[in-house]
Design a protein that fits this description.
Radius of gyration: 42 Å
Largest sheet: 5 strands, mixed
Mean pLDDT: 89
Low-confidence stretches: none
Shape: elongated
Strand order of the largest sheet: 14-13-12-17-18
Distance between the termini: 24 Å
CATH architecture of the largest domain: Up-down Bundle
CATH class of the largest domain: Mainly Alpha
Helix content: 40-55%
CATH superfamily of the largest domain: f41 fragment of flagellin, N-terminal domain
Structural class: alpha+beta
């Protein structure tokens, strides 16, 4: 029989010590890490639940990071928007209160203010958050606008706003500063006739009002329109009045009111009653002519600048037809009066019943007679067709027919397409079938500009494009979308060419760009007329997007983010508490267990030590 010695490898006491030591190591690790186990396997049956809770917390943290980034961008956007709003108010106040005294450069103090405001506005529209341009739509790596100096002054090859304003002024005033109007007397010498010359520019006749005794007034009619005042056989009485109402290029209206007087020389705004109606008619014509020239050199100049700025900042799609002749013998260039079908002054190849012209997806159908809605009679004129196309597109720039060529414009910022089931007849209008045009800045067709008749589309080669970001027909807000919760997304994009920004920018820019000849006796009236329009335009416009509307939309996004973040904070707290209950430990409990194990280990070590020191000799009798 053999007797083995006591050793740690075979003794149950040694195994117990190892177990106690392993437990102590585990508890020490728990106390140091604060967790039940450093592996999911050691977490027991709740480890699957713990995994789900940790994934939920991770998702909330990711949404929180997104919310932080978006809130930063929203803050920068709101600062820029408030800055733009303040600049608009600043320029409006300057246009109202600034003195109209011109400096050596032909500008007022209000216009100098506008120059600084325009540069600041461009800087704000090029705001960045990190490397992201906030007003460029989806092209967030691209600056939103061209530099302020380039927009105003152009480049070596591209015309800027100042050049387009000057070209438009020449076109609107005409060769003799009559605004493309002619005052004349037909064979009946008691008749004063006033007529447009068919140009797209200048003053447009609206109406004539008269209290002249015995006079007969003919309202504007025809193509181009003309009106007349026939004094008849009796002179007007002193104090009788006649008023000529005009529409200006920017859509505003002005009137020339003339009063009959016996005072010689007549006061301003009056015409002298002569010894007979022929002499009075001559005096009326002379006074009307000088009054039109003054209107042309004052309010018309201001309205022309506003129109040029609108055409520059608000690109429009334009289809310019080729010059074509009618079916007459000898042939002559088509006009607005040319019929759409027939002989003589009709299209070389006319439209037939059942033919269609489709404009931006909307068909115009030709019928024999009794046209209604989007129908035209085949005997209608080219002008009637042009007006129907304008109605469909919703353009603010009416179609023109000049020198046998028709020019069509689309709505602001929209494409323009035209096709026909009868391509030959469409070709007789000078337009190729399936023609599509994209928006471009409009400018006067020239040189020469004083005799120009229509607007043409500028190109990238010859005209500055002020907006360089992404353009689209969808919502600008939708160009930047962020998910801030499982089922919540916010939209916070912006484009510098949105109506609110563009409209403010173009009015500040035109005020900053216009210069006036200080030697012109009408200089003060010019800048006054311009300042009045800037004041009116920078006031809130009914039915038009305002900067405050954009601020409200972005505020809605911020509110949604805050609501989602608050909810996520609560959810994360609950999930973390549950996760801690699974993965965490009670430090007091673990410390107590460690103390108990340390005591057990100490006793076990002492017992083992005693056993190792025990030998047979101790039990043998001496």
């Amino acid at each position: 029989m053999s007797i083995d010695g006591v050793n740690g490898r075979t003794s149950y006491i040694g195994s117990a010590i190892i177990n106690l030591r392993n437990q102590l190591n585990d508890l020490t690790t728990q106390l140091a890490s604060g967790r039940v186990s450093t592996t999911y396997a050691g977490q027991g049956p709740d480890r699957g639940f713990a995994l789900n809770l940790r994934a939920q917390i991770s998702s909330i943290d990711a949404f929180s990071d997104t919310a932080t980034n978006v809130n930063t961008r929203l803050n920068v956007l709101n600062l820029a928007l408030q800055g733009l709003s303040d600049l608009g108010s600043q320029v409006k106040n300057a246009s109202t209160t600034a003195t109209q005294t011109l400096n050596e450069n032909g500008q007022t103090s209000g216009q100098i203010t506008a120059q600084a405001a325009f540069a600041n506005a461009i800087s704000l529209l090029n705001s960045q958050s990190g490397d992201r341009f906030l007003f460029s739509g989806r092209a967030n790596d691209t600056q939103a606008t061209a530099p302020a100096d380039t927009i105003l002054n152009g480049t070596a090859t591209q015309a800027g706003l100042k050049q387009l304003i000057d070209e438009r002024r020449q076109a609107d005033q005409g060769t003799n500063k009559m605004g493309h109007l002619a005052v004349s007397s037909p064979p009946a010498t008691t008749v004063t006739s006033i007529a447009e010359d068919g140009s797209a520019f200048g003053l447009k006749l609206a109406s004539v009002q008269s209290s002249l005794t015995g006079a007969t007034v003919t309202q504007p009619a025809g193509n181009p329109p003309a009106a007349s005042v026939d004094l008849g056989a009796a002179n007007p009485n002193e104090g009788d009045k006649v008023k000529f109402n005009f529409t200006l290029p920017d859509g505003t209206t002005e009137a020339i009111e003339l009063t009959a007087t016996n005072t010689n020389p007549p006061p301003a705004g009056s015409f002298l009653i002569g010894p007979d109606t022929a002499a009075t008619t001559s005096n009326l014509q002379s006074t009307l002519t000088s009054s039109i020239q003054k209107l042309s050199d004052t309010s018309l100049v201001a309205a022309s600048a506003i129109a040029a700025s609108n055409n520059f900042f608000n690109p429009v799609a334009t289809i310019s037809g080729s010059p074509v002749n009618n079916a007459n013998t000898p042939a002559a260039p088509i006009t607005g009066a040319t019929q759409l079908s027939g002989t003589g002054d009709a299209l070389a190849t006319g439209f037939a019943v059942g033919d269609t012209i489709t404009v931006n997806g909307t068909p115009i159908t030709f019928v024999a007679s009794g046209a209604t809605g989007n129908q035209l009679n085949i005997t209608d004129s080219v002008q009637t067709l042009a007006a129907k196309i304008d109605q469909i597109t919703g353009t603010k720039n009416a179609a023109t027919i000049s020198n046998g060529a028709i020019t069509l414009h689309g709505a602001d910022g929209a494409n323009l397409s035209i096709s026909s089931s009868n391509p030959t007849a469409l070709g007789a209008l000078g337009i190729a079938n399936n023609t599509t045009a994209t928006p471009a800045p409009l400018r006067v067709g020239g040189p020469p500009f004083a005799t120009a008749t229509n607007l043409v589309a500028g190109t990238q080669a010859n005209t500055v494009s002020w907006y360089t970001g992404e353009s689209g027909s969808d919502s600008a807000r939708g160009t930047a979308i962020a998910q801030v919760d499982q089922s919540i997304t916010v939209q916070y994009g912006a484009r510098a060419n949105e109506q609110a920004f563009r409209y403010e920018l173009q009015n500040i820019a035109v005020y900053a760009a216009v210069t006036t000849d200080t030697s012109n006796p009408n200089a003060s009236a010019q800048v006054t007329a311009l300042a009045q329009r800037i004041t009116a335009n920078l006031s809130p416009q009914t039915g038009q997007q305002q900067i405050q509307d954009v601020q409200a939309e972005l505020a809605g996004a911020g509110t949604a983010i805050k609501a989602a973040t608050d909810r996520q904070t609560q959810l994360k707290g609950m999930a973390q508490t549950m996760l801690d209950s699974i993965e965490g430990i009670n430090q007091d409990e673990v410390a107590t267990k460690i103390l108990a194990l340390q005591t057990s280990l100490q006793a076990s070590y002492q017992t083992t030590s005693m056993l190792y020191q025990t030998t047979l000799l101790k039990y043998l009798p001496i």
